Here is the input.
Amino acid sequence: MDPQILSEYFKRCFLAVDGLWFMMLEKTDSFDKALEVDSMVWKILPKIQARKIKELFGVETATEEDLISALKFKMDAEDFVSELSKKDSQIDITIKECPWFTLLKEANREHLAGKIGESICTVEYGIFAREFMEDIDFEVTSRLCTGSEACSFMFKKRG
Here is the structure.
């Protein structure tokens, strides 16, 4: 089996199961309950992702450069169209295309995207980064899902 086909298959399954369980919980309870549970999941998954990436990269004591490499890996693996830059103690990410937002638009659920992005992205990326560096702050300065031209994320080392 071609590894690219296998990878694409599992990626599509991951995206599908994430959306399906959310919609099923929403159907049996409410959107707010589904978002609450989804938020709990996204407080754990980025830790798992970061730890696996550290293992794959052989990172024991992470640096800012390791975090940048991990963020690039994560963005590429998840099919984001993004740019990363670093200046002094600040790392900026600009996301021009988000696969999650694309899926919401395709499912005619774009009107929910802002609330989902506020709940998930704000949590996910801060937790991911702190697995590499405890002394880092994270801020979302713009979101595609609220009408901006891009998502803008800022990571800044304290001190």
Notes: The chain has one domain: 42-157. The mean pLDDT is 94. The two ends are 50 Å apart (CA to CA).
